[in-house]
Design brief:
This protein is α/β, with parallel strands linked by helices and about 325 residues long. It folds into two domains: about 5-140 and about 280-315, Periplasmic binding protein-like II (D-Maltodextrin-Binding Protein, domain 2, 3-Layer(aba) Sandwich), CATH 3.40.190.10; about 140-275, D-Maltodextrin-Binding Protein, domain 2. It is built from 14 helices and eleven strands. The chain has helices at about 5-10, 35-45, 60-75, 80, 100-110, 120-130, 150-155, 160-170, 195-205, 220-230, 240-245, 265-270, 290-300, 300-310; strands at about 50-55, 90-95, 115, 135-145, 160, 190, 215-220, 235-240, 255-260, 275-285, 315. Strand 6, helix 9 and strand 7 (about 215-220) form a beta-alpha-beta unit. Helix 10 crosses helix 11 (about 240-245). It is elongated.
Length: about 325
């Protein structure tokens, strides 16, 4: 597999917002092409950081991808951002891979920033070192969602924590065991894959010591998870607030249950009343460079707030 360093060098003049390379791949300092040598020499000469790499959470991915694109389209080269910067092409890379992968990439220095959709662990902060910094972009709730066509939506809008735990553990495996008025259809559970921040949040808040049933279908992203529930009349899953709002934008296809009587609204998430929630953030373990700070300022601007809201999340700034 071509090294990340080589890809960054070869594509320096373009904006790449994709996952063509593995999130968290090891970086090589060896460059073989003449173009690579020239770029490496220039970077060494003035030590200006023209390339920025974000890696990790699929929840933060669409937000930062959109902002990286608009930032680059507006400025093109770094001197247009700040006249004291050199005239170098702006290259901001955003790669999805899951929260665990993201923080590992920041620790290993294979990415400048790790994207997370969960609280960062004390052990991870320690590994990132004395230059650790975190930037919370949004708040997200995990909605306990069912398909809108499920007849449960006609006579039930709330589930307590214990019932949710029993459903996701497989102890309650047919819908008639949730409510006697429902048919004895098998409950199909949908979750994020084990590398996703949502999995850890749901485990800590709802499941505790219980384990999610082995028959649960894992989804590579929140968008995929929401679609899986929307395509399964008898499905249930913890769709993120952003994914839930986006999939219901044109027509309601999912119905979120209240959890212990509390609805997943923006107000209840901000106040903390709705307990199944998480931060959407990025972290670093290095001294922030001037170019990185300019893009961070852009993320936390009015433009950034609009993009956060457009993706269905609650701005944290």
């Amino acid at each position: 597999m071509r090294s990340l360093k080589r890809l960054l060098s070869i594509l320096l003049a373009s904006v790449l917002i994709t996952n063509l390379f593995a999130c968290g791949a090891k970086t090589s300092t060896t460059a073989s092409a003449n173009t690579n040598d020239t770029v490496a020499n220039e970077e060494k000469k003035d030590d200006f950081k023209a390339n920025i790499l974000f890696c990790g959470s699929t929840s933060l991915y669409p937000i930062l991808s959109s902002l990286a694109s608009s930032f680059t389209e507006e400025y093109v080269t770094w001197d247009k951002v700040d006249s004291s910067f050199p005239k170098k092409n702006i290259s901001i890379y955003v790669a999805p891979g899951g929260s665990g992968v993201g923080v590992s990439a920041a620790v290993d220095k294979t990415a400048d920033f790790g994207m997370l959709a969960r609280d960062i662990k004390d052990s991870e902060v320690e590994k990132l070192g004395r230059d650790y910094k975190s930037f919370v972009v949004a708040k997200d709730a995990l909605t306990v969602s069912v398909n809108k066509e499920n007849p449960i939506t006609e006579n039930m809008d709330n589930m307590d924590t214990e019932t949710i735990k029993k459903i996701f553990s497989g102890e309650i495996d047919t819908w008639d065991k949730v409510d006697v008025s429902l048919p004895s259809e098998k409950i199909n559970v949908y979750i994020r894959d084990l590398s996703g921040g949502a999995y850890e949040v749901f485990q800590n808040v709802i499941m505790k010591d219980a384990q999610v049933t082995g028959s649960a279908t894992q989804s590579a992203s929140m968008t995929e998870l929401a679609k899986n529930i929307a395509n399964d009349k008898w499905g249930i899953g913890y769709a993120g607030f952003g994914a839930y709002n986006k999939i219901n934008a044109d027509k309601q296809v999912l119905q979120a249950m209240k959890v212990d009587g509390v609805e997943a609204t923006a107000e209840n998430v901000v106040s903390g009343a709705y307990k199944v929630q998480r931060p959407v953030m990025f972290v670093s373990g290095h001294v922030i460079t001037p170019s990185e700070q300019k893009f961070i300022d852009y993320i936390f601007s009015d433009t950034g707030k609009k993009v956060v809201e457009a993706n269905g999340y609650i701005p944290a700034f």
